[in-house]
Amino acid sequence: MGRNGVSIKLMAGIDEKHKPKNKRQAFLRLLEYLAPYKKAVSIGVIANLWMGLVVLAPPLIYGKNITDRVILNHLGESGPARWRLLLISTAAQIILYGSSSFMVWVRMKTMHILGERILVDIRKQVYARLQTLSLSYFDRSQTGEIMSRVTNDSEVVEEFVTHAADTLVSDAIRLAAMCIIMFYVCKTLALISLLPVPIIFVLALTFSRKVRPIYRKVRERLAEINAKVQENISGIRVIKAFAREEHEETNFENDIEAFYDMRVRAIGLWTRFFPTIDFQVRTASVIVWAVGAAMILHNVAGVTMGTLIIFTMYLGMFYEPVRSLATINDTIQRSLAAAERIFEVIDEQPQIEDVEGAADLPRVQGRVEFDHVNFSYGGDEEVLNDICIKAEPGQIVALVGRSGAGKTSIVNLIPRFYDPISGRILVDGFDVKYVTQASLRGQIAMVLQDTFLFNGTVRENIRYGKLDATEEEIIQAANAANAAEFIEVMQDGYDTEIGERGIKLSGGQKQRLAIARAILADPRILILDEATSSVDSESEYLIHRAMDRLMEGRTTFVIAHRLSTIKHADQIITLEKGSVSEVGDHKTLVDQDGVYAQMYEMQFKLNDENQ
Question: Residue 280's CB: how many other CB atoms inside 10 A?
Fold first, then answer.
């Protein structure tokens, strides 16, 4: 299936799991975002309603006053009276249109600002939910796809507020008012005018059922494209290293063409839908003119040239909200398709949550115990099997083993990134499941092989370990991490921008900044994923010195890749296929001539050969 195929299946699985039950539910949830802003919505509805109702008066003025009384003079009024009526009618229309223009300004400003406010609320809610979700969610979701929901989908939902929310109410009221006036003026012509309305609404319902799934697929395809772009930007060095530019360009072209095909399908539907509505409207107008003219020729009582002019003008206005409601329906369908994807994130529940009544973990000494722990990432296969480990305060515990043995899984259970399927993890005797995550993780620091630094300054990245740290504390942490020497020679010192993921720094410099960040956090439990294999000898020496300072007095778990670096560990735990196979210090395990001894001897030979 390939990389893209796997992504599509993965995202489809996520979507199906949390898809809102029906369209009505998603629509009602969208309306909930308007509830805190009832005043703004009311202003928008009133302004829109005024705009609609004001234009109902001019046709009556044109038809009855100007046509029948001024031009045709059906009432036989004198010349001065007719001129006076013309001036009054003209002034009244100018005043009405002026007030309507003012309300256009009120409505546009109010609803567009409200739309931006709702956009902020949605993005804040989605981002807040993302912060609470467990690592398992991010394990199965692509970054670009998540970003698409936060940015692109929320912008589409904003269109619902800006162009649809208030218009739905005002257009419905305007239609009702026009129906009353038209039936009052002439029942026969009013009935003819209403003939297309049922057809239009049937067409709108059919359009909704067909176009919404397509809009859903359009949103998903766009998310896949965003994920692809994000992945390629992150992996641009690999792409260029293997000269795969043309390959990636071809893949992207295929994705964008598939997105284009989806868009064309949607365009095909609404380009058939709206002309069909237009034909119905124009046909009704022609019939009204024909019937109205025949009624005038046969001197039907109450039907005058003014009556026909009134209906001619009203027909244009009557079908405008009908067309508008059809257009709004299209906006709503796109918004609902986007809203469903947003609600999937909001409705996602974290797998790791604080239990009810969870207590704050007090300041600990650092005793860590794994009590018969079994763990799986969700499949049938257990990654860890009956793990029993005890680390006393201040001890250094090294985890060694071949790739896939379970080293990373063990250290991820300590800060409760995941929960075991059975067994307990205790910190100073407290089961980590029954303490708050914040109080637990606040006493743990991690320095990982894949060092992550934020796009910002050196100071900001060090301070991340303690947000209220003073300048003196930051400098002390940098000194302890052997980072001050390279920071101080930078052009802007601690204010130097380091770029995304610290791209402007060397591997050794990034690692020392990460150590400074951990030192500033002052943890009781430390997790280290040794990351000196890819740095030069001088950087390795400086990093090890910094790590030694960092580990002083702290319980430390070290994932060891180079066994020569963990000879001083208090405990060395060898893992095989998710189980503990050996426990002891370096000398004991070498003397046992087991798995650890074999691994150590192999690395020793490799080092000799490389020399």
Answer: 18
